[in-house]
Structure formats: C-alpha cells, structure tokens
Amino acid sequence: MPLDIYVESADNVGGVARYYEIPALVRVTAPVHLKFTVRNAPSSYPSGTHLADAAVATASERVRRAAIGLSALRRHHPEAEASP
User: Fold this and answer.
1) Cβ atoms of 40 and 58 closer than 8 Å
2) Distances 33 to 7, 24, 40 between C-alpha atoms, Å
3) CA distances in angstroms from 63 to 8, 28, 37, 46, 50, listed in the order given
4) Is residue 84 pLDDT above 90, yes or no?
5) The model's pTM
6) Reduced to 3 states, what is the DSSP secondary structure of residue 51?
7) Is 20 within 8 Å of 34 (Cβ atoms)?
8) pLDDT for 33-63, tens place per residue?
9) Strand partners, 33
C-alpha cells in the first residue's frame, strides 16, 4: 500500500521542507506518493472566487516545486521508477 508523504507542507501543518530527503524517502518507503504544498502561501480555505488568483498561483508553484523534487530524485536515485 503506497504511503502519502509531504515533502513540503503548509505552515499550518508544520511547514516542513524535505527536498534533500526525497531520494532516501523513495528508496526506503516505495511505493510512495510524494506530496507538495507551498510554505508561506496564503490559505485558500474556505475557497471562493475571491481567492481564484491566489489558488492558481499556488497550484502553479506546487507544480514547479514537484519538478524540482523530481529533478533531485532523478539526479540522486536514477533507478527509481514511477508507478503506472
């Protein structure tokens, strides 16, 4: 059963950042789902159209940070494979 592990978490749940730990997390815990939020981002809950711009910007930043994490994984644990 895959685990869900936050690589980066929002400030209201601890605000951790574990980018350097990604290769070891995958090596030790696979199968694993790595999750990315954005520290220091404004809360988008409760959601509404008044927060649409912030929600889109935060989503874009999450994708950028996931790409950084994937790059680190490929560099330091190239034999790791994504599940189908």
Assistant:
1) no
2) 10, 13, 22
3) 12, 24, 9, 22, 22
4) no
5) 0.82
6) helix
7) no
8) 999 988 888 777 777 888 889 889 989 999 9
9) 4
Give which of 69, 65, 61, 81 is closest to 21, Cα–Cα: 69
Q: From its phi and psi, is residue 58 left (phi > 0), alpha (psi between -120 and 50) or beta?
A: alpha
Report helix, strand or coil for 78.
coil
Output phi, psi for 7, to 5 deg.
-80, -40
Task: Find the mean pLDDT for residues 17-32.
Answer: 94
Where do we find the tokens 């929600």?
55
DSSP state of 84: -
Q: Which residues of 17-34 are buried (b: 16+ CB within 10 A; e: fewer)?
A: eebeebbebbeeeeebeb
Single-letter amino acid, residue 81: E
Within 8 A by CB and 6+ apart from 12, the residues are 43
More confident residue, 11 or 7: 7
- The arithmetic mean of pLDDT across residues 2-31, rounded, is 91
